[in-house]
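TASK: fixed-backbone design
INPUT:
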């Protein structure tokens, strides 16, 4: 139950940070904010500020930052719809930016106590390594199969997404960048001196001591790795490598967080693992929210840019009612998808 409560609080924080990003950007750019709400449904608490009504709603499943002129026509000079395009773009993107920033800050805190980090500088190659003839000690691997290595464990992750037989590498050797194509690279059974059998690629990498800068840079590159993982997941959905049944919504995330917490050795480990997962979810939300889909901030940014192009060539704008129709249809489809995902989450938990 403790981890379920943590998950609910986590969702509340992510929503608050996201809507807070819109709120702060709007206020800084002079846009009138009529209401800032955390949660959805009936109001359980509210306080009228000088201009903005602050409210807490009954159900912790959302929130909103209601700006003047956001969904209706108004003559107010401080209305969202009457602002310059660059201001509206900043306000729309601010929520996702704050989610990404939260994920990054959590990682910075988690890495603050880390002592060592892995690099992709080769320190040795194990006996039987199928790639041994292509590499030398001191080589630094930059990318695998066209994907940059942001953090140490990207090496095995990228290879696991390959054909399982060969791989293309970009390395730095003696300061020179080299490209190695169709290098034999696959898992093989390696028996250590104590008799332990493991499936390995056969690479050994240099471990270095952390500094303040490497902790911050590792946190940043881990955040970028999270961004790429979201894009990989979307690509898998489009290609058919993954299906809707593989998606998880709030119910599935709560279940996963509960499982992660219960599987941790101590409550301290549980909190650290859950914070790491929270960081991933925060970055995930930032990326997903910026997708050019109706009803999302990314969809509104997309229309903003399209309107700019239309105005540039025709001196006309797309009627707001048509954009409203598209967003309404997108919202209906999004809610339908959320229902399907929620049902899948429940069935997965029930049968799992």
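OUTPUT:
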């Amino acid at each position: 139950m403790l981890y379920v409560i943590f998950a609910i609080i986590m969702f509340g924080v992510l929503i608050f940070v996201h809507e807070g990003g819109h709120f702060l950007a709007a206020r800084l750019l002079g846009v009138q904010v009529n209401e800032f709400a955390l949660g959805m449904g009936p109001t359980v608490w509210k306080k009228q500020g000088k201009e903005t009504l602050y409210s807490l709603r009954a159900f912790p499943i959302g929130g909103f930052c209601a700006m003047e002129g956001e969904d209706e026509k108004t003559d107010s000079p401080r209305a969202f719809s009457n602002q310059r395009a660059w201001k509206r773009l900043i306000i729309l993107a601010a929520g996702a930016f704050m989610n990404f920033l939260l994920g990054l800050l959590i990682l910075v805190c988690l890495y603050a106590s880390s002592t060592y980090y892995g690099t992709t500088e080769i320190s040795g190659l194990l006996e039987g390594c199928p790639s041994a003839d292509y590499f030398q000690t001191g080589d630094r691997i930059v990318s695998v199969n066209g994907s940059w290595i942001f953090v140490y464990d990207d090496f095995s992750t990228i290879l696991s997404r390959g054909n399982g037989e060969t791989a293309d590498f970009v390395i730095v050797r003696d300061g020179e960048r080299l490209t190695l194509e169709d290098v034999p690279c696959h898992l093989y059974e390696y028996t250590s001196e104590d008799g332990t059998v493991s499936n390995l690629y056969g690479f050994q990498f240099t471990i270095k001591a952390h500094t303040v800068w490497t902790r911050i840079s590792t946190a940043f590159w881990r955040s970028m790795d999270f961004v790429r993982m979201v894009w990989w997941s979307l690509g898998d959905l489009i290609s058919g490598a993954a299906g809707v049944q593989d998606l998880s919504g709030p119910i599935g995330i709560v279940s996963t967080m509960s499982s992660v917490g219960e599987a941790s050795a101590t409550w301290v480990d549980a909190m650290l693992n859950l914070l790491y997962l929270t960081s991933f979810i925060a970055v995930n939300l930032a990326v997903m929210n910026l997708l050019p889909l109706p009803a999302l901030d990314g969809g509104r940014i997309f229309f903003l840019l399209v309107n700019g192009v239309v105005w540039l060539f025709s001196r006309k704008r797309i009627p707001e009612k048509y954009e409203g129709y598209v967003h309404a249809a997108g919202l209906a489809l999004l809610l339908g998808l959320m229902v399907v995902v929620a049902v899948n989450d429940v069935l997965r938990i029930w049968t799992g």
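COMMENT: Residues 84 and 92 are 13 Å apart (CA to CA).
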